[in-house]
Amino acid sequence: MYWTLELVSYLEDAPWPATKSELIDYAVRACCPDEVIENLQELEEENEIYESIEDVWPDYPSKDDFLFNEDEY
Length: 73
Description:
It contains 4 helices and no strands. It has 73 residues and is mainly alpha-helical.
């Protein structure tokens, strides 16, 4: 299983919190790339509730990870 910013961006509008099967269903209905669906199928816990993208991909960068000064724009 591998995630990139592009792949995980397809899940930003997913119905959080969600189970593995709900996320897979969302990915199929949203016509996400096959890689997203394959990554979701590799999640270990079938009945676990995933609260956000960070639960699916712990390395998901937050706004603090980017060196961007919003006051300048």
